[in-house]
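A favour, since you know our structure tokens better than I do. It will help me judge whether the discrete encoding reads sensibly. The space below this message is yours for that.
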Amino acid sequence: MRESPLRRALRVFEAFTVDHLELNLTEIARRSGLPISTTHRLVGELVRWGALERGPGGYRIGLRLWETAALAPRALGLRDVAWPYLEDLYHAIGENVLLAVRDGMEIVFVERLSGPGAVPVLTTLGRRRSLHATSAGLALLAHAPTQVQETVLSSPLRRYTPRTVVDPVRLRHTLAEIRRAGYAVCDGHMTLDALSVAAPIVDSTGLVSSALSVVVSAGTDHRRLIPAVVTAARGVSRALGAPGARRHSRSGVAG
């Protein structure tokens, strides 16, 4: 079956990644697997529309595509509702504050607040991460449908650091503990210099649709962060109209 023009254009977009933000025409053709003539034509059309723009070293994603992506209902409404709580949490702890949603077997970060004194993190807006290696991912995985959990548990799990939980039995136990406790903790699971705490956010249908997390330096006493993170997540849940959002989460340690 012949590939549609739309699919070829999508292959151009797929050539760009967090590690390849700017590409020349030859690189786009090579990474997309498209002929150079086709790439030249598609890139020209995308530049004229604003989906791509010229940079000093080639082409990069254009602002018009970002403007369009920002209209995605799942992220747009959530970010608007969550922003005051993220801001309050950031001012309270002065560290990285992140908002994430689950997309299939990965999480996508849709908002981030950070300051000059915060620990450096690998996460940028729109970046995808594995569900099992971050506190936000674990919080979402713990409340994901059974089919999603079983798919993750039966798949090879990448070990980012020696502390990443990759044993399915241990991960299953961790997810149960997160559901019991109401929050997740990852100490050095993604990078050894960072610790994160996350809590699930419940939407108006009663489902966990997103998670709020903070990332601090390794060695930080995570117990002092838990009340603030859980309270902020509960506030977002209430603002989203979650049923029973006023219930108190049970205390415990997970992750």
Observations:
- Residues 73-93 form the longest helix (21 residues).
